[in-house]
Design brief:
By secondary structure, the protein is an alpha/beta fold. The chain is built from 7 helices and 5 strands; from the N terminus they run βααβααβααβαβ.
Length: 136
């Protein structure tokens, strides 16, 4: 089965989180499976690393190393756009009280019939209601 990972899940690899150990274990298990991310994943991850830089949690070299490590996973980046896509996001966002970014991860999981790795409580709850398996 394919899996989709969101930014919160991947960030636990390098930012302290109570589930960091479990996320690292899950990444090992996902090594031989298809892992997808929506295109905005890369914007979100960049934004997260920029914020960490501004707070002096990382140095520039650290962020470049994190980027290198993330790209080693060879995530399949799903690019979706247009009116039909927006309609699906509006429907999911309204149905599950999500923002557009959260709805994009759920939309991809629904469309690809994939499990979703997230540490976002609201997105996790939406997955459970929508019948989408979650990692962890």
């Amino acid at each position: 089965m394919s899996s989709i990972l969101d930014c919160s899940f991947c960030a636990a690899l390098f930012l302290p989180h109570e589930k960091s150990g479990a996320v690292k274990d899950m990444f090992r298990k996902l090594a031989d499976t298809e892992v997808m991310v929506p295109v905005q994943f890369w914007d979100e991850m960049t934004e997260l690393l920029l914020a960490a830089l501004k707070r002096d949690r990382f140095k520039h070299a650290d962020t470049m190393e994190i980027n290198r490590l993330l790209t080693m996973y060879h995530f399949s980046t799903e690019v979706s756009f247009g009116g039909d896509y927006m309609s699906r996001l509006f429907d999911l966002a309204g149905l599950y009280d999500l923002g557009a970014r959260e709805a994009a991860y759920l939309e991809l999981a629904v469309r690809k019939r994939a499990s979703l790795g997230t540490l976002n409580g609201k997105l996790r709850a939406a997955c459970l209601k929508a019948g989408i398996e979650t990692l962890l």
